[in-house]
Design a protein that fits this description.
single chain, alpha/beta, Rossmann fold, 7-stranded mixed sheet, globular
Amino acid sequence: MRIGVLALQGAVREHLEMIENCGARGEAVKLPSGLNGINGLVIPGGESTTIGKLIEKYGFSDSLIKLGTSGVPVFGTCAGLILLAGRVLERRAPTLELADVTVKRNAFGRQVDSFEQDIRVSGIEDEDRPFRAVFIRAPVITEVGPGVEVMAGLEHGIVMARDRHYLMGAFHPELTGDKRIHQYFINMVSRACPGAA
């Protein structure tokens, strides 16, 4: 099974390590051609405006939209969530507009307001055990469409959700030692591509 990580900015290496720790093959995707043949894709955190501009600069936009609309599972964390969102409040750069959610950027404040908090994420393995989530200039989901499953929330808003084959987290699971969320995504990929080894 091949899981790509969009390698334009952000914690690419950490995502690749988590994917490998879950028993899948992680691949850094640096060019649109790197999307060919992958079974799933992670869009990592970083600065959403910068990543959006790099996606356009390197010609990723059409390929990413085609990948998503073809049913390949995509997991967006932090800035990746913003890029997947169908609607972004105070949007500063183009997004992929694939998932039926509305997102507010920097919902918790600036970089100095970053924090960690235990949250409960429905659907992951051992869901009653808290997940220590790392929030860095994090967005929140403020509104979801009728088919979107809310998986975790805080008083500021929704911090994890799933819309069909799109998984979205406002925090950075790759910066923890807890692989349950990555495993959940890999299980999504396995169900979408049962022949992938």
